[in-house]
Each structure stands twice: as structure tokens, then as C-alpha cells.
Amino acid sequence: MTDGPLPHLDADGRARMVDVGDKAVTRRTALARGRLETTREVVALLVADGLPKADALATARIAGIAGAKRTSDLVPLCHPLPLDGVTVDLVPDGDGVVIEARTRTTARTGVEMEALTAVAVAGLALHDMVKAVDPRATLTGVQLVEKTGGKRGDWHRDRPDAAPEPRPAPSGGAVLVVSTGAAAGTRDDTTGPRIVEWLGGLGLRTPPAAVVADADVAAGLREALAGRPAVLITTGGTGASPTDATPEATAALLDTPLPGVAEALRARAGTPTAALGRGLAGIADGTVVVNLPGSPGGVDDGLAVLADLVPHLLRQRHGDADHAHGAHQSAEHRDRG
After folding, report:
1. Which of 92, 102, 169, 237 makes the best surface tag, with the fewest CB within 10 Å?
2. pLDDT tens for residues 307-319?
């Protein structure tokens, strides 16, 4: 049963490709399983590598991996996904071969179809390898076993009626230093420890800052967000240099932009060149994300602005939107009231 209209159909019942542009990028996995039914004699030949088409199990495994990578070409409404990994296992079992495929991605939509396609294609390839000795071989039971990640949480076939396992609420802090020099060890980073200490002062347990080169900022952001921090602050890579890519990488992950926060950060800076800064702020899958400049002065100015904004924003994220209502009004405004 579904919770509402099928997402792949529009209001007129016509097939469509679902727009996932507003969904968060999260770590997702899927496990699918199937079975090729044959005879014990054929399974013995598979194990002994004695079929006319040799190395059948290895060939089917490669076919399954290739099938997962081509899923969006084979299933019309599937989105092309950046696969982090595909594992296909074929296990002889009595008078058949159990086929399992596990797929992993960091993306805006699930990777279940890739796992199912891997099992189906591996099974078809295996059938092609054994048909000369058993044309009655049957691929059967292709099914999704489990999935993790995404808005709906985790699901397992053995618990179809259970509520999805809740994802942990964002907590603690995280810091990402974007600096090619610091990543290479050719310059010391002083901004990361400063931000870690500042987050700790807010009561947010924060591990040491992660340091990545400018070219690796997108992967660094995804890894930091996978830990579900309440607040993620980046430093560096926000200027107009050809290598500065932090804003672009951040924009791809934000569910809710907070342009006013970014403008407040630029307005506070004490140098005219701050107008060249392109840092962003917003919410990404429940995490407050803020880009700060890479200079120590820019970080100090930014933290001064965030000192009031971050606690208030975290209270709002916890549903306490009316907490201390009016606390940020000016004294003049309150006196007039």
C-alpha cells in the first residue's frame, strides 16, 4: 500500500520523472536478492568451472555490476546516480544460485533500482551461461531486501509493517577547513581550531576540524553532513578565485537557503574586499550550514555575527519558534510598544 498518489504519475495519470531537486543529498544503500533455479548437476558444473562457457559466476558478477551502472538507461524513469559502490555475490545453494547485490550512493534519491537491476542482469547472464545444459533454468524471486537512508529512513523486508527506523536528530558541531595549502601541509590552519572552540562554547560537542583541498570541498561537505551535525561551519574557498568552489558545493546541498545570514556576515566584515565574498548559509537535511571566509579576521567577524543567530536558529529548528519572542528587538522598539 502507498501513503498517497504514486510519485511517478502526474495528475492525469501519465508517467513522469520525479523532480528530486529539492531533496537532500544523503548516504543511501540497498540490498536486493534473487535466485537462479537449475539442477544440482549444473550447480556442480558451475563450481567446477566445467561449463562450455567457462568462468560463468565471474562473468555474471561483472554483468550485474555493469547492469547497476546502466540502470537509468534500462528503466526509463530512473535518475542517473553517482554510485559509490556495487557488490554482486553469487552463492551456489543446492539446486540453485543465490544472487545478492548491494549498492551504495550519496545522492538525492534511493539506489534500490540499481540493486534490483544488478540482480536481474547477473541472473540473466548466468542463465545465458547455463542454457546449453539446462534451458529450463529459471530466474526467480528478485526482490528488495533492505534499504537505508533518505527521508523515509531504513526499511527491511522482514519488518514490512514496522515504522521506518528514525534517523538520529542532528547534534553537535562540525568544522570543514577548505584550503589546498593546509590540506597539503604547506601552511598551518588557525581558523579550524578557533571555530571548534567557539562551537564548544555553545555546548555543541565538536571534533577537530576536517581539512580538504579546494577541489575536494564537495566530498568534504557530504562527509561532514553524513555525521548529522546540528551546525556545520566551513572556512575558506568563498572568494572569486578560480579554485574557490565552497559556495557552489554548498548550494547543491541546501534545502532552505538563509540569504539574510550570509548578508549579515558580509556586512559585519571590516574590509571593503568582504563584498567579494560569496559565502552561503542555510539548512541541509536538518543541519545549519554557514560558509565563513578563510582569513582569521573574517572568521572572528563571522563568529561575532553568529553568536546571536545560531542559538536562536537552533531553537527554531527544535520547534521553539516563539522562544524569547522579542528578545532581539531594539530597546527603542520595545519602549514604543
Report:
1. 169
2. 989 999 888 876 6
**pTM for the structure as a whole:** 0.53
Burial of residue 289, with CB atoms counted within 10 A of its CB: 0-12 exposed, 13-18 middle, 19 or more buried: buried
Q: Supply 73's cell numbers.
A: 538507461
Smallest CA-to-CA distance from 284 within 196, 198, 224 is with 224
The torsion angle over the Cα atoms of residues 101, 106, 110 and 114, rounded to 10 degrees, is -30
Q: DSSP label at 187?
A: S
pLDDT in tens, 104-152: 998 888 899 999 999 999 999 999 999 999 999 999 999 999 998 876 7
84, 89, 128, 300: which is the annotated catalytic residue? Answer: 128
| Secondary structure tally for the chain: helices H, strands E | 11, 11
C-alpha cell at 135: 534451458
In eight-state DSSP terms, residue 271 is: S
Does the active-site annotation cover 128? yes
